[in-house]
Structures are given as C-alpha cells and as structure tokens.
Amino acid sequence: MDLCRWPGWTAGLVCAAVIVRWWLVPWALWLGRRALCWGRYAVSRPRPPGSGGPRRPRPSACPCCGGVDFDGMAGRWAVVTGCTDGIGKEYALQLADRGMNVALVSRNANKLRDVAREIHDRHGRKVRTRVVVADFTSAGRGPVTLTETFESVSRGLAGLDVAVLVNNAGMANAKPDRFTDMTAADGHGIVECNALAAVAMCRVVIPLMSEGGRRCRMLFGDDGDGDDEHLTLLLSTTPEPPPPTPDTRGGVVVNVGSASFQLPFPTYAVYAATKSFLEKFSVELAAEYDALNGQPTYCSPVAVRCLTPGVVATKMTRMRPSGDEGPLTFLPGPRAYARHSLRSLGCHCACRLIRRDERTRDDRETGTAGARGSPRDCDREGVLAGVLSAVFDSPSSPFSVGCAGVTTTGYLPHTLMMMMGHAVVWTMGRSFLSNFVYEYLSRTRDRIVRRNAKKAEEKAAKI
User: What residue ranges are annotated as transmembrane (predicted)?
Assistant: First the structure.
C-alpha cells in the first residue's frame, strides 16, 4: 500500500516545490522590496533647506523596482526613431510633454517637420527639437550606403545630452506570406530596419549617454577592416561630448519589439525572428550596461528595457483601435499604448516620491522652481492604474513577460494575452497554437489578395 502512495506524494512535493520556486518566492521578494521601500520613505525625515549641497548622482533606474525616472530627465534629450506615425510619434509627443527635448529620426523629412511643428505648437520654446533624416533600409538608396546614413545620424546627434533612446523604427510584411513567397528585398529590408538599425543606434547614442564618451569607445573597440559596410560605423567622427554633471549622466534605451518573439507567428517568419533578436540583444545589453547589475563599469549607468506589445492599431497593422482611451481594450491606439508603456517603465515605489521631493527642495534652494515642466494631465496615473502597472506591467514584476527586469509588454491586456497564449501552449502544445495562427493568417492573406484584385479590376474598368 505504501509503495502505491509514494508516486502521488512525490508528484505532490514536486508540484509544491515548483509553486514555491516560481510563484511564492518571487512574489515574496517583490512584495518585500516594495514594503522596505515604502517603510523607508515613511520613516525618513525631510532635509532642511540649505543643508544638502550639490545633488547626488541618481541612477537611470530605481534600485528598488527598476523603474525609469522619466520626470527627472526634463531638459535633456530623447532620441526617437520611426517617429512620423503611430507609436513612435506618440512617444515623441509624450516625452516632450514631460519636458524633454526630442531628436526626431526618420526617413520622411516632411513628416518629421510636421511632428516638430506639432511639438512646437504645444510647448513653444520650452521644448527644443532636432530633425535627423535617415533611411535605415538600403533598398533604392542608390550610391548612399548604410554606413554613410549612420555617420550622418551620428553627426546630427553630436553634442546632445541624451537621456532616452527609443528604437521604434520597424517594418513588416505588407501581408501574411510564406517565407519563399517574399522577395529578397523585402526580407533584407525587414532585417535592416528591425535589427541592424537598433544595434547601430545603440552604438551611436550610448556614448552620448555615458560618462565622457572616450571610455565607451574603448569598450566598443575598433571598427575593424570595414569589409561589411552594414556594420562599419565610424564613431570616431562623433565629437567628444562634454562631461556630464552628476545629476544628468546615464540614460535609458527602450527597444520596441513584439509579442511574436515568444508566441507562434507563422507567415511572418523574418519579422518575428528580428523581434526575437531585438529581445535577446536587449537582455545582453542590459547585462553590460544596466544600472542594477551592481558591477563596476567603465560607463555611467545605462538602463536597457524592451517592450513587446501585441497588436496595436497603427498604419503598419492596418487596424482601427477598439477604444483608444480604454485601459482594458486588446487593440489600443498608439496614444493609449505609448501612455501605458511609459507608465509601466516608470518608477512604482516610494523612490519616485523621494526624488520628487528632492527635486522640489533643490529647485527652491536654487531658485529654479517651475522651470522643469510637468507631465500633462493625460500622463498622470491614478492609484488603480499605478497599482495595475506595478503588479502586471513593470519589468521587475513576477508577472513580467520575458526576461525579468528588462522585458515587458507595457500594456495589461497584452500581458494577459501572452499569459493565455502560454497556457494554450502548455496545455495543447505549441504545434496546436502554431497551426491555428497559420490558418487564421492564411485566410487573412487570401482576403487581402481578393480585395486588392477587386480594387485593381475597378481601377482598370474606370480607365
């Protein structure tokens, strides 16, 4: 009888160990850090005016929750790629609303000027903009190479005190297609825009975030013999940036990926592969430069985060939002997603209040109160929204999708969607979900082909 019971007891102990290891321990540690942080804030005493001296160096990410102090970066520069439409444009506008100057990088000069004009209309001279025209794909560029493009980007950003880099530029298939049905130019362009551009922009901008700049170039190493023109980025053309002050050093890199890096996404093989590369690149870059690793580095703290959204209603997805302002819609618009993702990457513990109080006291002592600017009302989170972001969307949360501390969907419904996808994979198998997605996308492709054929017939009939 005892021999018949021990397999059940063993299975029960294994399940209990898994639950404790993967659920109870992370939650206990996460709640413990939050409790210690809020307790420290509750028992702290306010600093009397005039007793502080110069501001202390502040890391780019909170040491308690890993959140980014966007409010403390007012007056510095944010570099946003792919910012003429969709999510990228909203990032540029909302970072400008937080008091940051914005460097706009994209390939359409007219649309870049329109975005810069919109920022100027909203903020006047309080927020500066800089337009950098760059095409991250080599298709149809003629004699201009990608190396020359990134050299021009490097020159355009030279001398800026950069605090935020948002690698949002990306492209996908025009419609769901099997890999062999894609043209070589389409596949090459997706790899260049989604993967190579992010790597190159990090290499250009991270020295501008880091202390001095010379030490960072020592870490990057020489450019080699330059056999591959796509990887030869001559950073020696970048002037030495001025030494940053203790309060403004470091920054954060935000790579915008996709939920397709974890869930099956057939008919978008190249696109999904580049987003998987971007997530892995973010994780390894964070291990080198993240302010939370506790290891001495040659550079000032540079935090790296990767956003992996689901479907967002943009021109690339050709979808309409089901509710742009709703917090629980599975198909948000660009404005809603950008707002929620910036909130999820922010600080969710008492350190945010401590930094705010320190900035207020320092500004009063120096006579610069009110010069920093403040976020607009649409970016101020309520208590419930802040709790949901901290519990589900913060990169340090146990619910975080992907690598803890680095990756998050940035949007609660997309986090729930990823959880449901993983549950289906665990119960039914990955092949079941992959076949289901393939059938759905294949039918979508057929509808697109029929619609395009019908439009072509109508156009020919009019002629």
Answer: 6-24
Q: What is the pLDDT of residues 117-141, one digit of tens each?
A: 999 999 988 999 999 998 888 775 6
- Kindly tell me if the per-residue pLDDT of 115 is higher than 90: yes
Please check the confidence at residue 371 and state whether its pLDDT lies above 70. no
Supply φ then ψ for residue 312, to 5 degrees.
-120, 140
User: Above pLDDT 70, what percent of the chain?
Assistant: 63
Residue 229 DSSP code: T
The model carries a pTM of 0.77
Amino acid at 180: T
- Our CA angle for 362, 387, 323, nearest 5°, is 110
Cα distances (angstroms) measured from residue 462 to each of 283, 452, 454, 455, 459: 54, 15, 13, 11, 5
One-letter identity of residue 81: T
H or E segment and range at residue 101? strand 101-106
Q: Which residues 6+ apart lie within 8 Å of 395 measured at CB?
A: 66, 305, 344, 345, 404, 405, 406, 407, 408
User: How is the beta sheet containing 407-408 ordered, strand by strand?
Assistant: 129-133, 101-106, 77-81, 162-167, 251-256, 302-307, 407-408
Residue 420 neighbours by CB distance under 10 Å: 11
71-422 has CATH 3.30.1440.10 classification: no
Task: Answer for the pair 96, 122: CB distance below 8 angstroms, yes or no.
Answer: yes
